[in-house]
Amino acid sequence: MKRPFTGFPPRLRRLIPAFILVGLLALFLSGCDTDTPQNTFDTKGEVAKKQADIFFLAMWPAIAVMILVLGGLVVIMLRFRETDPQHIPPQVHGNTRLELAWTIAPAILLLAIGIPMVATIYDLGREPSEDAFRVDVIAQRFSWEFQYPEYTDEDGTPLSVFDQEGFHIPAGREVAFYLESVDVIHSFWLPKLGGKLDIVPGQTRVLWLRADEPGSFSGQCAEFCGLNHADMRMTVIAQPQAELDAWAAEMLQ
Amino acid sequence: MASIAAPKRSPLSEALKGVRHAASDYGSIWSWIATVDHKRIGVLYGVSAFIFFVVGGIEALLLRVQLSQPDANILDPDAFNRLFTMHGTTMVFLVIMPMSSAFFNLMVPLMIGARDVAFPRLNAFSYWTFLAGAIFLNASFFTGDILNGELGAPDGGWFGYAPLNLPEFTGGHGMDFWMLGLQMFGIASLAGGFNFIVTILNMRAPGMTLFRMPVFVWMTLVTSFLVIFAMPVIAVALFELTFDRLFEANFFSAEAGGNPLLWQHMFWLFGHPEVYILILPAFGIISEILPTFSRKPLFGYAFVVFSGVAIGFMSWGVWVHHMYTTGLGTVANSAFGVTTILIAVPTGVKIFNWMGTLWGGSIRFRAPLMFAVGTVAMFTIGGLSGVMHSMVPSDFQQQDSYFVVAHFHYVLFGGAIFALFGGIYYWFPKFTGKLMNEPLGHLNFWLMLLGFNLTFFPMHVSGLLGMPRRIYTYNGEMGWDLWNLMSSVGAFFIAASVLVFLVNFFYSLRRGKESGPDPWDARTLEWSIPSPPPEYNFKEIPTVNSRDHFWSTKYHEDETGHVVPILAGGAVETAEPEPEPAEDDAHGHGIHLPSPSYMPLIASIGFPVVATGLIYDYALVPVGFALILIGFFGWAMEPATEEE
User: Fold this and answer.
1) CB distance B57 to B498 below 8 Å
2) Which of A2, A198, A204 to mutate to test the interface with B (most CBs of B within 10 A)?
């Protein structure tokens, strides 16, 4: 039986999978340091940072296992390819010790990364702190509205801001977003500040985030909500408290 | 047999006798329509699934064209939403599931040494109900104002989240077609699931104990159990949705006191076992291919089988990982995070055992093997990104981003579809007597591998750069354009590979080399009978003495411990006499096969009639139910075997 790809130079043929792997890895890693508006690695706050830590905690072992398995497959394919069509290899049925080893070892590895994972879940899953700046977010197809209970007009009505006017939050202070939806499920996501939280109609969800420095952060609805889901975007500007207060005072006029 | 049926001959069966005789002519189209032969039903499943694979693929290409550049205007958001809804629904319910059913049908009876499945007419009913549902669902495209470019298909996503799935948000009839179509697939799958459980438990050849069964049969058994437990869950969810949509009930509307998250719990309690319903048959297929082409038994049979069973059980305890961001709280997220990372253990066991199978073998680089090894490699990547998803804190960033899209395509395309292609290349000779063309097979494989990675690997990056799923367009400043362009180009490579496959398929069907009964020097029973197998499969039901029984009739260990052929040419003879014209032998040997029947088809046609009635005019509902009842009644009354 003829081996396939006899037309290719053997050396080149052997390297094909390696080329693919290295190329893809290079590509993948090049994505990490791209400065783009919603880059989840370009973290600007505590929540996003801790989530990225967990990402890398899982990513490096994953890449190691990937290289082990894919590299192993390439080695096996080269080393054990058929040379003599008449040859029948020994009929090995298994090796219980080996199999137990590759059952138990991954379980230990996985539980090992599971411990910091659970710790981070509890760390980030806490209630917002007492002095957090409260913003009520109202999601509706296909726009956002921010209400600021800390800034009220003479009647006690909180300042309300829509997309086109720009959303503002304090920098360096925890912000508690009280999320509500008036229609379907949306998901509130500011990637550089932290992961998303779904907004389920009829319920109020609280998400706390913190922007360490002043800056402008891009986000958008992450749960499919119908026709113009893609257009449900927002930009949130974090600024020092004094500037924020001044902005609010101006808005209330 | 005839004497059992003779005393009570109903006028109905008398009248249908003539029609049924037409169906007995093995060449006619009627013989396909009325067939109850598992091999023909398998072919019908396979061909239908492949047609829908092309349809779902074209939908994907349209989506990729729209996303190839920022702010593109090739599809409007409405069309985009309908197409991605149909793409997902099609690939899950109309492609991978029925393609797996095709292999269950084709292979299980042959592998366990049976002449057919336990309930041949129920089997036909499964297929026709699936097809009825598939046509019904796709018909929804035409309910829109299609001449003006408005498609009418469902637009709520394949997951149909509440309350978006309610009429106030998804108007028109698209979602009605979706929920009723899905209900039909559920009925078809349930019937198939029960059928294969009974077949595998009751119809194995003498000596074929459970632990002598080929792994593919084991995986079919596990999958069938998952089907019969998972489908009722989605059925209940869909019934509730039907009440909400058609009769203004309040299961899911928050406004009226319902709970939108109820839908998600039911959908994913079905949906996660469903993932394993899609992938376990693929695991079974490669567990057959790898031993054959490395000429070694499967490494650690018991581990592979039990890890499959363990996955089956564990798949019920991980559904919340689809819902980390819905705010279920730290305890729920921690618990389901841990169960989810642990499901990687039995999956990893399989991967290592497959590598152990190849290790020390004499590996023949034939197309089926390439696809099987490709499956192991690509599924590994998908499995690892799955572990990354299980990590709750980082999943808050990845959820509903393109990272998820990359992950599940690595699992379902890199895993399931690659394996299914491998299965086609592997078993094509068994059912056609012809070998598929090898160079075209390799071209098919490498094009698909290249296109697949070019399409889906960049999605990891675009996802981590913050690109959400299901958006019809994006802004050029987001830094996603390069990655999306790569994905779009890759999609066309995949399309090209499928084209190569089709050319290979039809070319080999006409001009392929004769394969003989056992072209791969394989290990399982199906290769001991002629290719294509006679209508009755086994002239004599074999007696099985060991796992890989067929192999043990061909090879044994000599005194020095080397594996040597038993006798030149002895292999096929001991297993089964050389293929010979056996068509009319069947009756001579007293092999009774179930007669063809139109009744399953009649019953199946009733379902889309009921569904259409529910949407447009209740008057049709009783008509549909009448058809179903007539089908079932005729089915129960007609004799199982035609009198001679």
Assistant:
1) yes
2) A198
Residue with tokens 């009319």: B584
Which pLDDT does position B580 carry in this prediction? Answer: 47
pTM: 0.92
- Average of per-residue pLDDT values in chain B: 91
Q: Give the Cβ contact number of residue A112 at 10 Å.
A: 12
Q: Which residue of chain A comes nearest to B451, CA vs CA? A: A20
Task: Tell me what ipTM this predicted complex has.
Answer: 0.90
Indicate yes or no: CB of B337 within 8 angstroms of CB of A93.
Answer: no
Q: What is the pLDDT of residues B382-392, one digit of tens each?
A: 999 999 999 99
A149, pLDDT greater than 80: yes
Which one-letter DSSP state was computed for residue B563? E
Of B77, B163, B352, the CB nearest to A184: B163
- Which among B400, B453, B561 is the nearest to A24, CB-wise? B453
Write out pLDDT tens, residues B359-399: 999 999 999 999 999 999 999 999 999 999 999 999 999 99
Does the distance separating the beta carbons of B555 and A88 come in below 8 Å? yes
Does the pLDDT at position B577 exceed 60? no
pLDDT band at B85 (very low <50, low <70, confident <90, very high): very high
Asked if A175 contacts A167 with a C-beta cutoff of 8 angstroms, the reply is no
Kindly determine whether residue B300 and residue A99, on different chains, have CB atoms separated by under 8 Å. yes
A interface test, pick of B325, B355, B438, B450 with most A CB neighbours within 10 Å: B325
What is the C-alpha separation between B388 and A33, in angstroms, rounded? 20
Whether A98 and B362 lie within 8 Å, measured CB to CB: no
Tokens of B41: 């039903």
State pLDDT tens for residues B308-339: 999 999 999 999 999 999 999 999 999 999 99
Interface check for A6 against chain B (CB to CB < 8 A): the answer is no
Task: State the helix-helix crossing angle for B330-342 and B367-390, rounded to 10 degrees.
Answer: 160
B71 CB burial (10 A radius; 0-12, 13-18, 19+): exposed
Give the three-class secondary structure for A38: coil
Closest of B99, B94, B96, B114 to residue B37, by C-alpha:
B114
C-alpha pair distances (Å), B625 with each of B124, B614, B615, B621 = 19, 12, 15, 6
- B575/chain A closest Cα distance in angstroms: 20
Q: How far off is chain B from A220, nearest CA to CA, in Å?
A: 8
Inter-chain CB pairs, A–B, below 8 Å: 313
Interface probe, candidates A5, A57, A86, A184, chain B, greatest B C-beta count within 10 A: A184
In tens, the pLDDT along B300-314 reads: 999 999 999 999 999
pLDDT per residue as tens digits for the range A203-233: 999 999 999 999 999 999 999 999 999 999 9
Greatest Cα pair distance, chain B, in angstroms, is 80
Residue type, B252: F
Residue of chain A whose alpha carbon sits nearest to that of B393 = A51
For chain A, positions 151-170, list CB contacts with chain B under 8 A.
none
